[in-house]
Structures are given as C-alpha cells and as structure tokens.
Amino acid sequence: MNSPFDSSGSAQTPVWTGFLVGLLAGFAVSSLLIGLVLGAALSGGIGSVTRGTPTVANQPPTAPTPPPAPDTPSKPPAPVTARDHVLGNPNAKVTVIEYSDFECPFCKRHAPTMAQIHTLYKDDVNIVYRHFPLSFHQNAMKEAEASECVAELAGNDAFWKFHDAIFDRTAAGGTGFALDKLPALAKEVGANEAKFKQCLDSGKYTKYVQDQLQEGIDAGVQGTPGNFVVNNDTKESKDISGAVPVTTFQSAIDAMLKKS
User: Pseudo-torsion of CA 55, 56, 61, 64, nearest 10°?
Assistant: First the structure.
C-alpha cells in the first residue's frame, strides 16, 4: 500500500501539491515585475510618454524656423550716380549693386564671386559697391569711411584696390583689420597718407556712409551682402540676398540681358 510517509516515517508532499505551489509562486513574481515596470513608466522615470510619439523628459523645445527673406525689394535700389564706385563698363546693360560690410565674413567670401561676374560678362555687366556697415562689426564703419577718403584722394581705381586689399587681408568678424593699419594701406593703393589721416579723422564721410546704409534698408536689405541685379534699360531689379554661388547670379543676369 502506498503510504504518505517515507520509509523513515516522515511525511511526503504529494506531487500535484508541489506543482500547484510552484505555479502560484511564479504568477506572484510575474505580477510584481509587471507592476514595477508600469509604475516606473507612469512616474516618468524612463521618459515621458505622450499620446502618439514618446519623447525624452526635459527635452528643450525646437527653435522656430525664421521666415525667408523677401524675394523682391521694398522698393528699387537708389539709381547709380557719379558718386558710386563702378567696376567695369559704366554703360553696361546690367548692373549688380552690392550693399556690403568690410568686416562681414560672408562679404569676404562673396568678393571673389563679384570679381568672377566681372570677368565672365566683361562690358555687359558692371559692379557697384555700396556701404552697409553692421553695427556689431566694430571697425566696419570707419573702414567704409576710409574707402571714401581713398576714392577722393586717389580715384576710383584706388578705391577698388583698397576694396580688394581689405577683403583679402581682414580676418573679418568686426575687428579683422586693425584701424591703425588703414593709413599704410591708403598709401599703398596710391593715396597721400597725411591727407588720408586728415580726411578720416574729420568724419567727412560718416553721413554719406550712413545715408547709403539707410538706402539699403529702404530697398529691403536685411543683411550683408545684399545684392540687386538691375536691367539698366527697363530699370527692372531682382533682389539676391547673401553670399550665393555665381550660378545664382548668372541665372538672373542672363534673364536681364535677354530683355535688353
């Protein structure tokens, strides 16, 4: 006869009883683990969950995308006059007007593009440089005035030599070309150094530079370089903002030339 006791007389647990106890213990452990995971998730310990896509807790908001610059100017840029600095044929069919800042790193990068346009189009296109010194570029205003003093003392060709030298040598960013080096540069490009110092120290061209800056603002310039491609026959103009590839200018220039 089967006995509930072993040969030593100790009680034995039936097999089905052991199986039932093990099953209940496993269920209890599983329930405990599920509860811990759900509790952690709801408390935010493994990240916050929103309806739809989970996000990392304390993630900073994404900055809004700035609106694009307008494709057309507020009004046409001021007409080119004898006071402007023109590179190339003064009677060209198309003019590229650049509002620029001698301490602007993008303008420095943009200068070779303007030179390339001058080379590509020869007598069909000329370049006009106008001042747009940004207030946070400490030396830009005085460098703009210096270029006008050079033009007064040594002419248009000297202005463009000064223009090229500044952009070639400045580190840009506001104080990339030291102001105390301006007299030596003026002399290098052909101006009388003593007369240059007198002109620059007098502030003779401060208002002129400020007026060009305001003209640029009135035409819709929001930063440098600010460019306009102008058909000199129809007076149509196209705004091209920034230091963009030469191909962008070519598209606009070619379209303007077809209308001339």
Answer: -50
Q: Which helix (H) or strand (E) holds 96?
A: strand 94-100
Give the pLDDT mean for 6-26.
43
27 vs 160, more confident: 160
Does the pLDDT value for residue 6 go beyond 90? no
* Under 8 Å between Cβ of 41 and 205: no
Contact 92, 125 (CB under 8 A): yes
Burial of 113 (0-12, 13-18, 19+ CB in 10 A): buried
CA–CA distances in Å: residue 198 to residues 83, 145, 160, 183, 185: 21, 12, 21, 10, 15
Beta strand 94-100 pairing with 125-131:
parallel
Q: How far apart are CA 21 and CA 15, in angstroms?
A: 10
* CB within 8 Å of 96: residues ≥ 6 apart: 114, 117, 125, 126, 127, 128, 227, 228, 229, 230, 249, 253
The CA-to-CA distance between both ends of the chain, in Å, stands at 121
Q: Output helix, strand, coil percentages for the chain, rounded to the nearest 5.
A: 50, 15, 40
Q: Which CATH number applies to 85-258: 3.40.640.10, 3.40.30.10, 2.30.280.20, 3.20.20.140?
A: 3.40.30.10
In angstroms, the CA 255 to CA 252 distance is: 5
pLDDT at 189: 98
- Residue 9 vs residue 56, higher pLDDT: 9
Q: Tens digit of pLDDT for each residue in 77-98? A: 999 999 999 999 999 999 999 9
* CA 152/CA 140 separation, integer angstroms: 19
